[in-house]
Write a structure and sequence with these properties.
heterodimer, A: 25 residues, little secondary structure, elongated, B: 221 residues, mainly beta, seven-stranded mixed β-sheet, 12 strands
């Protein structure tokens, strides 16, 4: 089947933390 | 205190979640966790979860009947969460026969009910495979516990992980994972009420400390 072109996640309204991998303390 | 700080609705709380591979070598068991949510015990001083507008991710999950949109509209909204996983694919456990791929999870609830746990894997927002499991409550310390212990991963997922691991660069893995999502819906088997709905999205971990995650509440405001 065909796939629909999706809006990249980077272009969506998401919190900054969505792109920040947590660092263990 | 749990409801705003952990994956918990008014009726059900996720205590633990892990997807792993395991093998026996020299009579020892080696276990590698791809993703893991460990037990937590938050207090009122801990921050509440951040929110994500559920409409931002509708298309990442099946938009057909039983998809995230329909489920969210049915509610209750406090049962909906998004987990962003940074998966650990750095396993040195050899693939092949004798390796067990599994998923374990544990929940605690307020009611003595039978739950149905549906796990849907979506590619480009379309469902490709679904597993449905039934669990019965066990009373433990005044709470009703539900435990899915070492549920075998399906062939689709095992093949997917193999292929992903063999990509030469992390950005390639992330590019594949951009279009890979999992929707887990826990419902009351008798009434079909949604008790917990967790949308999983993924990237590859760059940490030396293994799998990481962030949890968000899904809102619509």
């Amino acid at each position: 089947g065909s796939t629909v072109e999706q809006v990249p996640m980077r272009k969506r309204q998401l919190p900054a933390s969505f792109w920040e991998e947590p660092k263990l303390t | 205190v749990w409801q705003d700080r952990t994956i918990a609705s008014a009726k059900l709380r996720l205590l633990e979640y892990s997807a792993f591979m395991e093998t026996q070598r020299d009579r020892e068991t080696y276990k590698h966790l791809f993703v893991h949510i460990g037990p937590s015990n938050p207090g009122y001083s801990d921050p509440v979860l951040e929110s994500i507008d559920v409409r931002q991710i509708y298309d990442k999950f099946s938009e057909k009947k039983g998809g995230l949109k329909e489920l969210y509209e049915k509610g209750p909204h406090n049962a909906f969460f998004l987990v962003k996983f940074w998966a650990d694919l750095s396993s040195d456990v050899e693939e092949g026969s004798g390796v067990f791929y599994g998923v374990s999870s544990q929940y605690s609830g307020t009611e003595n009910v039978t739950i149905s746990v549906s796990t849907k894997v979506c590619s480009f927002g379309k469902q490709v495979v679904e597993k449905v499991e039934t669990e019965y409550a066990h009373l433990d310390g005044g709470k009703y516990m539900f435990r899915i212990h070492r549920s075998p991963m399906c062939e689709y997922m095992i093949n997917f992980i193999h292929k992903l691991k063999h990509l030469p660069e992390k950005y390639m893995m992330n590019s594949v994972l951009e279009n890979f999502t999992i929707l887990q819906v826990v419902s009351n088997r008798e009434t079909q009420e949604t008790l917990l709905c967790i949308a999983f999205v993924f990237e590859v971990s760059t940490s030396e400390h293994g799998a990481q995650y962030h949890v968000y509440r899904l809102v619509n405001d």
